[in-house]
Design goal:
Layout lengths: L2 H11 L16 E4 L2 E5 L12 H14 L14 H14 L3 E5 L2 H12 L5 E5 L4 H10 L2 E5 L4 H9 L6 E6 L11 H10 L3 E5 L14 H5 L5 E5 L9 E5 L1 H10 L1 H4 L6 H17 L2 H17 L10 E7 L1 H13 L2 E2 L1 E3 L7 E6 L6 H18 L2
Parallel strand pairs: 2-11, 4-5, 4-6, 6-7, 7-8
Antiparallel strand pairs: 1-2, 3-9, 8-9, 10-13, 12-13
Helix pairs in contact: 2-11, 3-11, 4-5, 12-14, 13-14
Bound molecules: pyridoxal-5'-phosphate (PLP).
């Protein structure tokens, strides 16, 4: 194992070494890190529901009734009424016939793509898709065409000359590092024309985008064949899901290895996600999120940033790895916690900021003051 030290040194030399940051509090707008209170601009708890009393109560009740673990995979004794009711709830929320829950969003993507696509098939995948989509494509052994970001004409050109058995267009709904939204109506039109399936990863859109907060298909009012999402962001829990037709879900139950060969989620996580969907429909917490996004975006634009994101994820472009890390640590010194994301995760280094519905006006104003100082210093 001597090679490990050399590899690690190489990672360090390239400025790509990853360190764990440790937060000593809940995922709230203000967190404690290294004993200091910081404004949290780096949480995917977009609606703040990890601390919602109804969500916590549901998780605690499930813990009390079912215990801490599920005891097995869904197909071998780990299934309870709780899992079935979450899947029914997701299907109702997404407006589909059925849904299936995986242990993480990552597993939902690799399990689904590898199950439905095979040798001799064609996958068209956006160059900025999440790593779990990329890994699912690789596992499937299908031919993979990576198209330039949101380049619908490239999708069409490729499909025009395709003689493949099955064709799948797969895209993030909201892109996790840029916060931009996939052009689903155009993608859908081309998919229909060339008889391709469409799969959308709504990890960052579930619970926040669209009139009923159902995700990007709801935002555009289009129908998608394969609706993938996570329970781990706005739904305040852990897990992933796919929603679609009865046949699709039945097929995934039979063929998705990440579903079949992995232990079911802890009951408390299942109950929390289900309660979060109820809160989203009953209380519409996304309304406050979008007010916060508008205030924050206005502040950034006023100080000269050019903001293309239309969502709660707003990157501040920094450039190379060193500038990214330096800017993020300056921001932290000024009282704001936001992750620096470096190449090769992204083409251009950035501080990925994201808002929560629970941020106050004061949180946002103070964060903007700190960002202004960093912007001036690094000429962002
Ligand atoms: C677009 C996208 N898809 C999938 C995932 C994976 O979801 P999870 O964290 O639930 O495994 C993420 C999460 O980070 C994501 O950003």
């Amino acid at each position: 194992m001597d090679w490990l030290a050399g590899e690690l040194a190489d990672i360090r030399d390239k400025g790509l070494y990853r360190r764990l940051n440790t937060i000593e509090s809940a995922q709230t707008p203000r967190i404690i890190k290294d004993g200091r209170e910081l404004i949290h601009l780096s949480s995917n708890n977009y609606l703040g529901l990890t601390g919602h009393p109804e969500v916590k109560r549901a998780a605690a009740e499930a813990l009390h009734k079912y215990g801490t673990g599920s005891g097995g995979s869904r197909l071998t004794g780990g299934n309870t009424d709780l899992y079935n009711s979450l899947e029914d709830r997701i299907a109702r929320f997404k407006g589909t016939e059925a849904a299936i829950v995986f242990s993480t969003g990552y597993m939902a993507n690799i399990g689904t793509i590898a199950a439905i696509m095979n040798k001799g098939d064609l996958i068209l995948s956006d160059e900025l898709n999440h790593a779990s989509i990329i890994d699912g494509c690789r596992l499937s052994r299908a031919e993979i065409k990576i198209y330039p970001h949101m380049d619908v004409s490239c999708i069409e050109n490729t499909l025009q000359s395709s003689r493949h058995r099955r064709k799948l267009i797969v895209t993030d709904g909201v892109f996790s590092m840029d916060g931009d939204i996939a052009p689903l109506p155009e993608i859908f039109e081309i998919a229909e024309k060339y008889d391709a399936m469409v799969m959308v990863d709504d990890a960052h859109a579930t619970g926040v985008m669209g009139r009923q907060c159902r995700g990007t298909a709801d935002y555009y009012n289009v129908k998608v064949d394969i609706n993938m999402g996570t329970l781990s962001k706005a739904l305040a829990s852990i897990g992933g899901y796919v929603a679609g037709s009865n046949e699709l879900i039945e097929y995934l139950r039979n063929r998705a290895r990440a579903f079949i060969y992995s232990t079911a989620l802890p009951p408390s996580a299942v109950a929390a996600a289900k309660a979060a969907i109820d809160v989203i429909e009953d209380e519409n917490p996304a309304r406050k999120l979008w007010q916060n996004v508008a205030r924050y975006r206005r502040g950034l634009t006023d100080m000269g940033f050019s903001i293309t994101s239309k969502t709660q994820i707003i990157p501040l472009i920094t450039g190379d790895s060193k500038r990214t890390l330096d800017a993020a640590s300056d921001l932290e010194r000024l009282g704001v916690y936001a992750s620096g994301i470096r190449p090769p995760t992204v083409h251009e280094g950035r501080i990925r900021t994201s808002l929560m519905a629970t941020h106050s006006e004061k949180d946002i104003n103070e964060a903007l003051d700190a960002i202004y100082i960093v912007k001036e210093k690094f000429r962002l």
